[in-house]
Amino acid sequence: MSGNVLVLAEQSDGQVSDATYELLGKGRELATAWGGTLEVATFGPTDVSGQLGIADAVVRVDHPALASYTADAYEQVLLQLLTERAPRLLLLSNDTVGLDLGTALAVSWDASQVAYVMALAVDGDTPVATAQILGGKILAEVEITAPRGICTVIGGSFPLAAGKGDGTPEIVTAAAPGGLDAPRISLRAIVEPDTSDVDITAADLLVSAGRGVGSKDDLEVVQELADALGAPLSASRPVIDAGWMPKTRQVGKSGLKVKPKAYLSFGISGAPEHLEGMRDAELIIACNTDANAPIFDVAHYGTTVDLFDLVPAIVEEIGG
Amino acid sequence: MRHTLASGETRQVFEGIGAVGTAAFYVLSIVTVAAFLIGSWRRTQKYRRGRPAGRGGTIRRALLVSPLALRRRPDTGSVAQVATNATIGRRNRGVGIAHFMVFWGFITLFIGTVILTIDFDIVRHVSKWFWGHEDSFFTGTFYLGYSVVLDTMGVATVLGLTYLALRRGVRPPARLDYSRAEQPAGGYSRKALVLGDWMFIGLFAGILITGFLGEAVRIVANKFPEFEIWSPAGWLLARGFEAVGLSAGAAATTHTVVWWSHAFLALGFVIYIPYSKAMHMLVDGVNLLAHDKNATRALPAPPADADHIGYRELADFTWKELLDFDACTKCGRCHEVCPARTGGAPLSPRDLILDLRQWADLQTGGKTLLDREQRPDATGPLQNGQAAVAGTVIPAKTLWSCTTCMACVEACPVGIEHVPTIVQMRRSLVDAGTMDPTLQQALQNLASQGNSFGKSARMRARWTKGLETPIKDARKEPVKYLWFVGDYASFDERLQDNSRLLATLLTKAGVDFGILYEGERNAGNDVRRVGEEGLFEMLAEQNIKSLEAAQFEEIFTTDPHSLNTLRNEYPALGATYKVWHYTELLVHLVESGALPVKPLNLRVTYHDPCYLSRYNGVIEAPRTLLAALGCELVEMPRNKTNSFCCGAGGGRIWMDDSVLSERPSENRIKEAAALEDVGHFVVSCPKDMTMYSDAAKTTGHDGTLTVLDIVRLVDQALVRPPAEPATDDVAVPV
Amino acid sequence: MRIAVILKAVPDLVEEMELTSDGTDLDREYLKFVTNEWDEQALEEALLLKDSDGAEVVAVGMADDPDIEQALYSAVAKGADRAVTIAGATGVDTRSRAAAVAAWLKDNPADLVLSGVQAPDDLDGQLPAALGAALGLPHVSVVVSVALDGAAAIVRQEFSGGRAADLNVTLPAVLGIQVARQAPRYAPVTRVRQVMQSTTIDEASVAVDEAAAGIRVRRMYPPEKTTHAEMIDGSPAEVAARIVELLRSRSLVKG
Fold it and tell me: How far is CA A279 from CA A103, A233, A275, C242, in A?
């Protein structure tokens, strides 16, 4: 059984993603523990190997079908690499790419997967992953007994810095598999985020509303506070899905990741997907009537005062 | 031509009209009666298309069992109620008296005409056939009595009509403004409605005026026969004509003109009746006799044989509903009291009924002259054919605006029942999934966990944690009272303190009570009124199963909405219980001394919850309780059955109210804030507590007006042993 | 055009999660189960396609899932043409469920298979990708809209940061739906009850090889609260004053 770890590098505009660095740092740790190598796969025309100094080897594959990401092409290439290089563990980020590829590869490569991983350690030869399931209400500590494992890791779980290094990995260029010439999924267009609205990622202060506000009408109350503070109003997924606010204001995994100086949340209970998008804020103040809401586990300050009492009081306090 | 004048104490029927004129009159009369009958028959045919309404018993009671019943707050009609015009005079005495005068004046004049017809067209001919000479009873004392009665009633009618016309013409109350609550995008005109009103008054007045004029000129023409003083109004008028120089000859000529004017107006009016606002004279008495408020308390189940859910087409409506549409006189009382309309929502009960009337007429090919709204496009009530009534003819937003507070049904003087019809149409909207996302979420929560909060059903009794004496589980041990707590009192964290307080007080008073714990579900009152009948049935079945498994004698509820459905709707599902409201229990405990109290000496106002006062007549219990606590009750102008809804009922609490210009709760708080030296706004419904606490804040009255549940006042007034502090941790500012 | 929608009954997250005595699994005995919310989105997207393009929608559940009949009747009440339960796969793990659904789909092919992008309890991965791989079909996850275009689907796939890609996907294909173009429609209880009277759920049975799971749950536990917010108590005015003070100290409020 090899002790090698393979990480798929994700990039946009020539920059390796933060999530990739997190995986690389953890991968480095596991590979070292097993005495194996850390390998990183990067696809497409852009060479980002210079940013991957922490790895022992960078495996590059290029082909016109890899110019932009599609599940179909990436899956075929990655399956070929997995077969050829036979790592003990494949690490993917639990984002769109991870959701596309993780379980598909588990089936086609005949590996065992643990999804929603937020902690990863080794116990002898065995990887032990801790996964967050059931809306963050339960953690499951799972050992991968199969010889081949795949972990899809929740963003923000591992330190980013540990994934950066200035080594000189071996650069391997692999050939693309034949199937790429007849892609079953092809890109029509990239849809860039709507930039006509305020950029909530650029704000120092964010006021954020969740399901607890109850209705579009009651959102006005929170909007008034945002106006009084001169901060943009953001929201969690239920508010966006209900159509009360545009997608550009969504904080969370499927929305935007924000890192303001202060984040005031009202009526947000703190689903894992939301926490992923805002836990790095310097100051988090959460208001939720349920004292057991997970938001209080990441917030610095919290209160269970009803938001409809509190928000007008804050507005008044600022005015006074 | 000089015609024969009448001799003896009578008058000639076709005096001065001549044979041709008389013949022409008979022809016209036959045409008139035919037109009237055709119009009335077509109306009747429309009602006959309606589904059965199950009102046979109601009508039988109103007509035969208790025809003289004349209660203050009647649930059903009676002959006496129709005869006295009591519903019209309620809260509008002047209008009631004026209408009473016109009502009986018209009936008397009509009977007078019938008597004349019997004498002239039947007795005269029959007597000739039988014994060869024309007999008439229209002479002598009978004629004099007839004259004085008809003259007096004619004057009464003129007076009543004058009052009503002046009120409408000079300074009309706002409720007579026909502007729509829901504004159609393409515009509309209701000028014809106003014209219809004046046409009705005008025709009526014209008949009366020409009647009196005819009488007067006849008296002048006949040179004032002495007995005609028994027609005092005509006599006086005749003296007036004489004074301005009208000669007998000129009067006779004038009489012919006036006679024909009177005849044309009267015949025209008869034709007009079934095609206009005047049909209310035929319809409204029947509608009142068939009226039953219980149909609003306990909503009708969907028809078992329907091939679709809820009201979609004309065939879905019952005959009572079709009659309701024609019964409306646009008096605007429902429009005035409606909390949705007041708050700027696109619903007016009046407009709803008028729209349905116009649409129903269009479907049946019925003709209503004037009294019709005009639009540049065929939208709303002007839509023909397959347009769905719920959502197209009546916009969905209109139907969703209703709080089912029943103020419209209560205010309607002619027994129209708006609320059940609205719910029937909502059922069709629910079936099509046309609803607010927040409402949909609430219904999904109710379906999965039995509460609208989306909390686990197992958490329902969590509020009882921390009580010194645990509440009995009525499913496990017998209790006297089963407390049906309800969703808001159980799950809303702002209200749980009140629930715990009530539990503590009941324990202190030694009341043997228990709750159903996780066995309780939302009672379903509001779910049913939203139009989600299947979910109501499901919730009720679950509750009834729990209730059957529990041992208790009687039920009391915190929530007036739960009370309504448990008391009035569960019996149809086979679960009949005695159901009290907690204020009724508390008043008993305080009066019996089980809860010793000292006077609080507060000036307070009290808000009657719609589902308690208007729906279920629990009006005195909270007032007696307040008095027993030494509180001086200052009534708001709208109180008791005329209470103004907080805006939460009928499922509105689950819907977005951003369309409103002013929330009904805010309107109500302002009403209370205008009372002098009143610092407490007392409520007895959990939903009121949340609605009015919010409204007091948003209107800026929270500093001067404390919204609190009546249970807090009981606790505050409680006489305790010296060492024991108040259970109530939130101090009541005194 | 036939669309299969795969539904899973999952624990209602409003419930408190209780664990078995050995602490390696959920105690499902007293749990309330609901349809996976992402599967509801998938169903809605399928029904929207049916509304616009006239597809036949088949709702598919696992016979062993608690209360799955309720979910399937509800799907039919919303507009699905028929409902099927598949017997043969037990448990909640994605791999054996995917194998069972794949086996059924081989005999009952669909042009489009939709399911929720994930489920709250799919510890070993997500169904759509597993299904795609098992059937050898193209698959896309985190899909936020689907349109049909002849033998292909035009699919919008969402990435983090608000970016998305419009893709051509050759049919048949498997899609993992994140959110439908419209909020899932409501299934009136009256209609569901009528469907229960009038509709028969087809029962299918498949044989699936018992594969070694390859993972073993050592323990499950509720997350320990390593850090917790400092709670501010007091009246709304007091709490507001403290919050504004915190913001002022960071110069985030003027004045």
Answer: 27, 17, 5, 21
Instruction: Convert the pLDDT of each residue in B595-622 to its tens digit.
Output: 999 999 999 999 999 999 999 999 999 9
Which positions in chain A have a beta carbon within 8 angstroms of at least one beta carbon in chain B? 214-217, 220, 242-243, 289, 306, 308-309, 312
Q: In angstroms, what separates the C-alpha of C82 from chain A's closest C-alpha?
A: 28
CB spacing of A191 vs C166 below 8 angstroms: yes
The pTM of the whole model exceeds 0.95: no
Question: What is the dihedral sign for C-alpha A44, A48, A54, A59?
Answer: positive
- HSE-CB of A262 using CA atoms within 13 angstroms: 21
Closest CA to B198 of B330, B59, B339: B330
> What confidence tens digit (pLDDT) does each residue in A206-264 have?
999 998 887 777 888 899 999 999 999 999 988 888 788 888 899 988 788 898 999 99
Asked, for residue A96, whether it belongs to a domain, the answer is yes
Tokens of B664: 């009904």
- For residue A71, what is the domain's CATH number? 3.40.50.620
Domain with A77, as residue range(s), is 5-181
Residue A10 phi/psi, 5-degree rounding, is: -105, 145
Same domain, B426 and B445: no
Residues of chain C contacting residue B437, judged by C-beta atoms under 8 Å apart: 183
pLDDT digits (tens, 9 = 90+) for B556-592: 999 999 999 999 999 999 999 999 999 999 999 999 9
Q: Which of B62, B90, B89, B93 is nearest to B78 (CA)?
A: B62
Q: Chain C 105-144, CB below 8 Å of chain A: which residues?
A: 117-118, 120-127, 129-130, 132-134, 138-142
Q: How far apart, in Å, do the first and last CA atoms of chain B sit?
A: 91
Mean pLDDT, all residues of chain B? 92
Q: Subunits touching C (CB < 8 Å, at least 3 pairs)?
A: A, B
Topology adopted by domain C2-205: Rossmann fold (3.40.50)
Question: Which of these three, B432, B464, B481, is where a domain ends?
Answer: B432
Tell me which residue of C192, C112, C113 sits closest to C149, measured CA to CA. Answer: C112
ipTM value for the complex: 0.91
Question: Are the C-beta atoms of B253 and B220 separated by less than 8 Å?
Answer: no
For C160-198, the pLDDT digits (tens) are: 877 899 999 999 999 999 999 988 999 999 999 999 999
- Domain hosting B350: range is 305-432
pLDDT in tens, B462-492: 999 989 999 999 999 999 999 999 999 999 8
B-chain residue closest to A242, CA distance: B437
Instruction: Compute the nearest-CA separation of C188 from chain B (Å).
Output: 6
Whether the CB-CB separation of A153 and A131 falls below 8 Å is answered with no
Give the contacts of B261 (CB within 8 A, at least 6 positions apart): B206, B210
Contact (CB, 8 A) for C84 and A97: no
Confidence of residue B734 (pLDDT cuts 50, 70, 90): very low
Radius of gyration of the CA atoms of chain A, in A = 22
The CATH number covering residue B106 comes to: 1.20.950
Task: Look at residues B634, B646, B625 and name the one whose alpha carbon lies nearest to residue B502.
Answer: B625
Do A267 and A222 fall into the same domain?
yes
- B352: which 2 tokens? 């709803």
| Dist CA C71 CA C76 (whole Å) | 9
